[in-house]
Amino acid sequence: MIDLGRAGAVDRPDGEGRAGGGACDDRIRFTLALEAGRIAAIRFGADACPAATAAAAWLAGEAEGRSLLGAARLGSQAAHAACWIAGARLGCIEVAVDAFHAALGDAVVRGARVPGGGRLAVAMSGGVDSAVALAEAPGDAFGITLRLWIDPLAPDAERACCAPGSVRRARDLCHARGLPHVSLDLRDAFRTRIVAPFVAGYEAGETPNPCTSCNGSFRLHELVTVAERLGADRVRTGHYARIVEIDGVPLVARGEDREKDQSYMLARVPPDVLARLEFPLGRRTKPEVRARAASLGLAAAGARESQEVCFLGGGDYRSFLHRYGSGAGDGAIEDEAGRELGRHAGVAGFTPGQRRGIGVSAAEPLYVLRTEPDRNAIVVAPLRRLGTRSVALRDVVMHRERRRVEAKLRYRSPAVAATLLGDGEKRTLALERALFAVAPGQTAALYEGDAVVGCGTIARAVPDDDGLVL
Amino acid sequence: MIYLDHAATTPLSEVAWRAMEPYLRERFGNPSEPHAAGRAARAGLDEARVSVAATLGCAPAELVFTGGGSEADNLAVLGRLRDGGRVVASAIEHPAVREPLRAYRGEVAWAPVGADGVIDLVALGALVRPGDALCCVMAANNVTGALQPVDAIAELCAERDVPLHVDAVQAASGSDVRALPGRATLALAAHKLGGPKGVGALAGPGVRDLPAVVLGGGQEHGLRPGTENVAGAAALAAALHERQGPEAVAERRARAARRDRLEQAVGVPSAAHSAARLPGHALLLAGVRGDVVVHQLDGAGICVAAGSACAAGSTEPSYVLSAMGIDAAAARGAVRVTLGPETTDADVDAFVAAFTGARTGLLRAVGSVA
Predict the structure, then answer these.
(1) Could you tell me how many CB contacts below 8 A there are between chain A and chain B?
(2) From the list B292, B313, B314, which residue is nearest A50 (CB)?
(3) Torsions phi, psi of A254, nearest 5?
(4) How is domain A327-384 classified at the CATH fold level?
(5) Angle at the Cα of A286 from the Cα atoms of A280 and A290, rounded to 5 degrees
(6) Helix (H) or strand (E) holding B283
(7) CB-CB: which of B315, B358, B369 is closest to A45?
(8) What are the residue boundaries of the structural domains of chain B, listed by start?
(9) Is the pLDDT of residue A467 over 50?
(10) Same fold, B14-244 and B249-367
């Protein structure tokens, strides 16, 4: 029989979570009150099937009196085992577990703290890399997963009603080790701080790099902040990069696996955040990590790689911009002399170096040289005009002042030797050889050896006809 | 345990047990065999057939024993439709009739019911046409307990010479059931009236010209081949006699009074409340999820049924309640409580207390989800 004694709601709750309302029409809500990091009271609301209602009641009964982290150990398998109901599927239970963990996460987002310290947090994505990082973590570790906004209209969009599969996988991995898992719903903040500038950047004619922004100013900062509230002064992630300390300053450095190296993506992470991070996979290769995952029996070992911008949900960024952009209409495709060669459906769909979608026939192949959103025009040129040796940077941050650097101007392009001219936030990068299709808006990661000593945002690329390197 | 799910099945009554027990052991023979053991079994089967036919008011030759109510319904529906033709059926038929009709490739016209769960006679009258292959109605609905105007429907069908099949499986537990004139057939199941599971009957003048759809050894006038369940037939005869005999009248009245008291005490609406209903039948609309109420009552040692069940991640409202115009949210709160002859006042009191407690807690839970 379901104990309905905790049915109801806490007045002025310190944490609140909901799930459900999708196809199954079950809805669960939790509210909780904290005292000194312990759950003093927790109540549930339910308009749901017997299994979901029973799981909600069981979770409330188990959680009351526990610390937030203690409660964060409670998950689907335990709830399913504890409240067996004929015919109940795990999916019914998950609705209650999602709502419960949403309430715990909400309490943490609102600033709840857990007494004690010295713990280790592992940032979990639900994929194989963080699964291995977790498996090798000590017994007092806990997992954290950030729930970020994903385009609900994308092909791989997750159900908006419940936690996405990635969050559930991360949670199950933690619970399988008996460790707590905390998931934080940062969808609104993520949309404001990362997705909106991404759309605005394209509309301004740039090619934004949301991943470096997210790592640099949002995701990892949130992780260390929240981990600290939960008594963890260190956060491990599954990134393929290293952290080196030079003259007392922690810097991101290239990972051992050059194929997977994510130092470029982490170029904007400030040293004070870096000082709290650990990248245990930085000295290993992806095949090694996969083999390790398989030997640990981790189900995520064979999982598909996610490399795309996460919020696109496997979709195309052009159709995303079409959905969420201001929708500036069609305009001219011109050559450098201003002659109209054709029409385009919106500048936001184009990035320097792009050939696809131009649809203009010419004597030699034409590529996007730049976009000019104020005129709603795209300027195209032959390949040889796309080389550049001189790149203007803005928002430059140097962790270690250097003139001679190696500059990496896109995630998948090689680093080239360069000289950094000027000082302050606006500087010019003089490249030793011309690079193809340098895109304003992209991050310039500046290396000395393997270490990222600084970074900036590409403001402008000056065309250079000579010596183009492809 | 307090058992208030008599519409699902019933405990074996004392008379049914006494009637069947000899045929399970000492009179175990196969009625088709001419030897002493076979003759003893045959005598029991004949006796059961005569008894059931007498209770229903048909000839023994117009009665076949079947493997249960669903089988009897299927034999009638599939037999009548073997050569095609149009069918008219009520929108609230039991799946034993509804599903063969849904699988049928010919034309099926579904007759509506009113808000009280009773077949709309005028609409049915307009639908049934001379030359139709079959008309199907139930004598009492298994979800709401609403009694259906089968005598009027039988008259209407006889006038137009349309064979009628009446599913009386639920009705026989608490209302008078009689074989109908014309080419009508009627289905029964023993376990709904104090008999064992796995035995039923198809009865009425329509049995005489009903085409066979199951072929085999020719037993039961060739309509239901297979070695006869003599013990089951004997139990069905005894149970039916008890439920349909003169002493049943007072028992039904007492059952209805308990049901009425229960409905008043719980203070929630009942579906089909304004219709004439089976005496022990109440379909409460709890206003909270019926399946959770059922779970809670089960925990308190009380067995009742939910009106709708969660299937494959979505709660399908009962088609019976939909046909009555009850919306999906209200239908989700349906709890079917069905009293039997052995139900006591104390059982009713215990139910009311447990139901009220569960409903109060669930109202709090539902109120807190918004």
Answers:
(1) 80
(2) B292
(3) -60, 145
(4) SH3 type barrels. (2.30.30)
(5) 95
(6) strand B281-285
(7) B369
(8) 14-244, 249-367
(9) no
(10) no
CATH of domain B14-244: 3.40.640.10
| Kind and range of the H or E run holding A443 | strand A443-448
Which among A1, A29, A49 is the nearest to B289, CB-wise? A49
Closest CA to B188 of B136, B139, B134: B139
Of the residues A1, A24, A89, A162, the best mutation for testing chain B's interface (the one with the most B CB atoms within 10 Å of its CB) is A1
| Residue whose tokens read 């109202």 | B363
Q: Give residue for tokens 């909600």.
A: A56
- In this prediction, residue A195 carries a pLDDT of 93
Q: Please state at what angle helix B230-244 crosses helix B14-24, rounded to 10 degrees.
A: 160
By three-state DSSP, how is residue A411 classified?
A: coil
Distances (CA, A) of B340 to A35, A414, B236, B253: 53, 83, 17, 12
Based on its alpha-carbon atoms, the radius of gyration of chain B, rounded to whole angstroms, reads: 21
A244 in contact with B at a CB cutoff of 8 Å?
no
Pairing of strands A416-421, A427-436: antiparallel
B292 contacts on A by Cβ (under 8 Å): 2, 48-50, 53
Backbone angles phi, psi at A273, to 5 degrees: -80, -40
Rg (CA), chain A: 25
Work out the percent of chain A whose per-residue pLDDT is above 90.
60
Report the topology of domain A385-469: Elongation Factor Tu (Ef-tu); domain 3 (2.40.30)
Could you give the residue numbers annotated as active site of A? Answer: 214, 310
CATH number of the domain at A4-109, out of 3.40.50.720, 3.90.1010.10, 3.40.50.1240, 3.30.420.40?
3.90.1010.10
Question: Is this prediction's ipTM beyond 0.85?
Answer: yes
Q: Give the residue among A308, A315, A371 at the shortest CA–CA distance from A345.
A: A371
Positions in chain B whose pLDDT score sits under 50: 311-313
Residue B308, pLDDT score: 64
Q: Does domain B249-367 bear CATH number 3.90.1150.10?
A: yes
Q: pLDDT band for A470, please (50, 70, 90 cuts).
A: very low
Write the CATH number of the domain with boundaries A119-312: 3.40.50.620
Amino acid (1-letter code) at residue A343: R
- DSSP character at residue A366: E
* Residues of A in Cβ contact (< 8 Å) with B365: 4, 7-8, 44-47, 53
C-alpha to C-alpha distance for A13 and A27, rounded to whole angstroms:
19
> Which helix H or strand E contains B84, and what residues bound it?
none
Query: Which tokens go with A16?
Result: 């609140």
φ/ψ bin of B129: left (φ > 0), alpha (ψ from -120 to 50), beta (otherwise): beta
Predicted confidence at residue B170, as pLDDT, reads 97
With a cut of 90, say whether residue A416 has pLDDT above it.
Answer: yes
What residue ranges do the domains of chain A occupy? 4-109, 119-312, 327-384, 385-469
